[in-house]
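Researcher: Re-running this chain for the archive, since the previous output was lost when a drive failed. Same request as before.
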Amino acid sequence: MRIGILGTGSMATALGGAWARAGHSVLVGGRNAAAAATAAAEIKAAGHGSLTEAAAYGEAVLMAVPADSAPRLAQELAPVLAGRTVLDCTVPMAPGPDGPSLTTAGGTDSIAARIAAAAPAAGVAKVFGICHESIWTLPRPAFENTPLAVPFCAGTPAAAALTAELITSMGCSPLPCGGLPRAALLEAAAIFAVGVWWSGGEARHAFPSPALAPGAVDDEP
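Model: Regenerated structure tokens:
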């Protein structure tokens, strides 16, 4: 699959590197040509170029820029993004006295929804924001002998199918979580997890499967 990367930071190189290792053709785009060239060389990408060139290159386009600038970039590139799947990995997070908090208004509002509104002819998926970028540098992310589950919300069936295909190609398990109106829940979950990690805890310990409880009944909701 051809994938355009919008951005040259740590998430751009972590995910771009994972896709390059999986055999996808990746082109890194940035406003700074030197930064794009450096990022592309680091992950052994197929090439580098401008943001417009990266958006035009891929069937899938990763939005790996600061969350508050992602909708503006989507609007700027809307004609190029038409017909493509935009993967939004941004986390709209701001520091606060009680830990990190959402910068979006909450409810059905999310960065992913704002990207979709800015580029209405693109398919948008909220995905890859839950895990720290270091997870994507692992050859095959798996924990406790189980492939990493990657939750996502997609605005169209085509975007959902392409996202699931990409996740599977990385050795992970797709975890569909509904349509794009639920993307705000993934953003909030990411910030919750970050807050737990910063406090020294383990977010995964808060979500045991009911099937692990003694006497669990299979048909319980």
